[in-house]
Design goal:
Elements lengths: L1 E4 L1 H7 L2 H16 L3 E11 L2 E10 L4 E9 L4 E8 L4 E6 L1 H19 L6 E5 L5 H11 L4 E5 L3 H15 L2 E4 L3 H5 L4 E4 L18 E4 L12 H6 L2 E4 L2 H7 L1 H8 L8 E3 H5 L13 E4 L4 H18 L3 E3 L11
Parallel strand pairs: 1-6, 7-8, 7-10, 8-9, 10-11, 11-14, 12-13, 12-14
Antiparallel strand pairs: 1-15, 2-3, 3-4, 4-5, 5-6
Helix pairs in contact: 2-3, 2-11, 3-4, 3-11
Length: 324
C-alpha cells in the first residue's frame, strides 16, 4: 500500500526535535559513507523550472526523491521508497522542507558553535527564517535574537513573534551590520543575489550559517567571510560545486580553495576536526540535500503507519519487471 500524506499530516506528526534527530542521523551516515545524495538538477523552459533531487540511506533502509516546480510559486513533493524498490509514500513536502532546512542549521550549530553562545543574528525574516531560529534555540542557550530584513516591518513582526513564542529577547535591527556586531551566531536566510553579510563585521568565535543561496547566481556573503573563517563546512561538497553562489564566488576571489571545504558529516563523525578554540570562526554553507528530505519523510511515514494516518492510494507501490 502507498500512503498519501498531506501538509497537515506532516505538521501534526513531526516537529523540530524529530527533524533534528533525522537530519543529524543521515548527515552522520554521509560521513560514514552510508548515505548518498543526488544533487539538485534543474530543467528550465521559459520562466518555469523543474527541480529534482534525491538520496539513499543504508541505515534507514529508504531512498527518495524530491520534486518541485518554480516559476509561479512552488509545490513540493517527496516520494519515499524502501530498499526493495517499493513505493511507500507520496508526501506533500513544503512543511517537511522547512523543518529539515532549519534542522540542518541546528545540527551544524550544535557541532560548531561555542557552548556559551547567547546571541543569534538572523538576516532575513521570510518563510524559512522561523525554523532556523527554532532549531538554533533547541541546541544553544540563546537569550537574544536580533533580526534584520530589508522590510523593516517584517523584521519587527518577526522579532515580536520570537519573544512571544520562545520567551527570549527579540529585537529588530536597523541594518545588517548592527544585527551581526558582537553576535555569537549568525544565520543568513535571504534570497539576495548580492552579499548581505560582510566578513569585517564578524566577531572572533562566531559561528555562521549561510542558508539562503542554492543558486550560483546568488551570494549572501562576501569573500572576506571565507578569508576569516577557520573552518568552512557544507552539506555536500559535490552539490556545493554546482550551486553554491557563496562558495563559487569565494573560490573565484581566491579566498578559499575547494580542498579546504569540509563536509559536515565528516565533522560529526570525527573524521575532520570541528571548532578547536573559542576564537575560531566556523562556517556552514547549507544548500539543502535530498537525503535530509527522505530521512524526515521516513519518520513521518513510520509514525503515520503506527497511528493510522494518511490516505491509502488505490494502487500498489511494488515494482514490476522492466520491459525495456
Amino acid at each position: 500500500m502507498v500512503l498519501y500524506l498531506t501538509e497537515a499530516d506532516v505538521n501534526e506528526l513531526v516537529g523540530m526535535p524529530d527533524a533534528l534527530t533525522a537530519v543529524r542521523a543521515v548527515t552522520e551516515a554521509h560521513g560514514l559513507g552510508r548515505a548518498a545524495n543526488q544533487p539538485r538538477q534543474r530543467a528550465t523552459v521559459g520562466d518555469v523550472t523543474l527541480c529534482l533531487m534525491g538520496g539513499a540511506w543504508t541505515d534507514g533502509e529508504v531512498l527518495g526523491t524530491k520534486t518541485y516546480v518554480t516559476g509561479a510559486g512552488a509545490r513540493f513533493w517527496v516520494q519515499l521508497f524502501d530498499a526493495r524498490g517499493n513505493l511507500l509514500a507520496l508526501l506533500e513536502g513544503d512543511r517537511l522542507g522547512q523543518l529539515r532546512t532549519g534542522a540542518a542549521t541546528g545540527v551544524a550549530t550544535e557541532a560548531l558553535a561555542r557552548n556559551d553562545s547567547r546571541t543569534l543574528a538572523v538576516l532575513g525574516a521570510g518563510y524559512q527564517a522561523w525554523t532556523q531560529v527554532e532549531a538554533v534555540l533547541a541546541v544553544r542557550p540563546v537569550q537574544r535574537v536580533r533580526v534584520w530584513s530589508r522590510t523593516g516591518s517584517r523584521a519587527a513582526e518577526f522579532a515580536a513573534r520570537v519573544k512571544e513564542a520562545f520567551g527570549v529577547t527579540g529585537e529588530a535591527m536597523p541594518d545588517a551590520q548592527a544585527a551581526v556586531d558582537g553576535a555569537d551566531m549568525v544565520v543568513t536566510v535571504t534570497a539576495s543575489a548580492e552579499p548581505v553579510l560582510h566578513g569585517e563585521w564578524l566577531t572572533p568565535g562566531v559561528h555562521v550559517t549561510l542558508a539562503g543561496s542554492n543558486h550560483p547566481a546568488k551570494r549572501e556573503s562576501d569573500a572576506e567571510v571565507f578569508r576569516r573563517a577557520t573552518l568552512v563546512t557544507t552539506d555536500d561538497v559535490t552539490q556545493a560545486r554546482i550551486e553554491s553562489g557563496d562558495l563559487l564566488g569565494a573560490v573565484a576571489d581566491q579566498a578559499i580553495g575547494w580542498d579546504a571545504v569540509v563536509s559536515l558529516g565528516e565533522v560529526l563523525t570525527g573524521k575532520r576536526a570541528g571548532r578547536t578554540g573559542d576564537d575560531d570562526i566556523t562556517l556552514f554553507c547549507s544548500h539543502g540535500v535530498g537525503s535530509w528530505d527522505l530521512a524526515l519523510a521516513a519518520t513521518v511515514y513510520r509514525r503515520a503507519r503506527a497511528e493510522g494516518r494518511g490516505i491509502t492510494l488505490p494502487f500498489s507501490g511494488a515494482p514490476v519487471a522492466s520491459r525495456r
